[in-house]
Design a protein that fits this description.
Length: 344
């Protein structure tokens, strides 16, 4: 991000007037912290005229893990003024070149806590620095998504079609490793997880039983545990690989909030419909490839006002997935500032 542009962008100063004429209020000494406000929101008590908001992006290679990542996450959180802090999961599995046939999944190495230590260092530093002010979430990729990192999505799908029972052993290993990390994060003090799922998108498998029997059970191991242990978990139904024909396969997934794309293959859902469908509050409203990325600031503001106006009162503004890493932080701060001035 260009720091000079950020600090020179007068529309984002405290008390500045936004594109549509609304004033960015400056919290006084008696204002509740972001942490308290979000806990009230989760309890079904949204602040009138205020819609919480958050956006996420991947940082550069020098800010993936450790203290450098903690500093970058904190800088992003403070400069965008988002309402909670989400830590990106960057300690992913590398490509396992030996994965040629379904039986090879049994050869996966179990990654233990030493593998995750660089990211756990990030967690510890952010919990120490920011937890008093904000809820802190860790990103959690599903075991199926981690398996895709080990191979490729295409190879993983082919192996699941050919011999799902053989692939299952690899999923068990990945899940065991994931649970070591999840429990360590909970012990370090995170408030929840941004729980991502893939595999039930349209056209991924020839039979829905593959997702039901060989992907979903492994999704739910960590998801069920963290939802029982932590107050704030977001179910992210990720459409990065492909769109969805429906969300029926994941409606019973846990999580206090759901984040998904309202655009299905055949129609667009409203946020009222999504809230009723999942029976919980929603996060979203802005297409990461749409106005948020390409529109003018006025168009961003107009879109947010329209989205919030049509959404349920307990709504969290965000994108449908991670925004591009080169997104100007000014645009995100502007969107969040507008969201903080409007409510259903």
């Amino acid at each position: 991000m260009n720091r000079r542009r950020f600090f020179g962008y007068s529309a984002f100063g405290a008390g500045a007037v936004l594109a549509g004429g609304c004033t960015r209020s400056v919290p006084d000494a008696g204002t509740v912290s972001k942490r308290e406000r979000m806990l009230q929101w989760l309890a079904g008590k949204p602040q009138p005229g205020y819609t919480p908001a958050a956006f996420f992006l991947h940082f550069g290679e020098e800010h993936k893990n450790g203290s450098a990542a903690a500093r970058r996450h904190l800088e992003f959180f403070r400069q965008t003024d988002m309402d909670f802090l989400k830590i990106q999961f960057e300690q992913t599995y590398e490509r396992q070149e030996f994965l040629k046939e379904p039986a090879d999944w049994a050869k996966l190495q179990l990654r233990k806590l030493d593998f995750y230590e660089p990211l756990l260092q990030t967690v510890r530093e952010l919990v120490k620095t920011a937890k008093d002010d904000a809820l802190i979430l860790m990103t959690l990729y599903s075991p199926y998504m981690c398996a895709g990192h080990c191979a490729t999505n295409a190879l993983l799908r082919r192996h699941l079609e050919e011999n799902p029972d053989a692939v299952k052993r690899g999923m068990e290993i990945l899940t065991e490793s994931q649970m070591l990390f999840v429990r360590a994060c909970i012990q370090e003090g995170v408030d929840g997880f941004y729980m991502s799922t893939q595999g039930s998108e349209a056209g991924q498998f020839t039979h829905p039983g593959i997702f039901r029997d060989y992907i979903k059970p492994f999704d739910l191991v960590a998801m069920n545990e963290v939802s029982a242990a932590c107050p704030f978990n977001i179910l992210h139904v990720c459409d990065y690989v492909a769109p969805y024909a429906s969300y029926d396969a994941v409606l019973d997934y846990p999580g206090q909030v759901v984040n998904c794309n309202p655009n299905l293959t055949s129609r667009q859902l409203t946020w009222q419909e999504i809230t009723a469908m999942f029976q919980r509050p929603c996060m979203g409203g802005l297409d990461r490839h749409g106005v948020l990325e390409k529109g003018t600031l006025q168009q961003v503001e107009d879109e947010i006002r329209q989205v919030v106006k049509s959404a349920p009162p307990q709504f969290l503004l965000g994108a449908d997935c991670t925004v591009a890493g080169d997104t100007d932080w000014n645009r995100l701060r502007h969107a969040i500032a507008v969201s903080h001035q409007v409510g259903s």
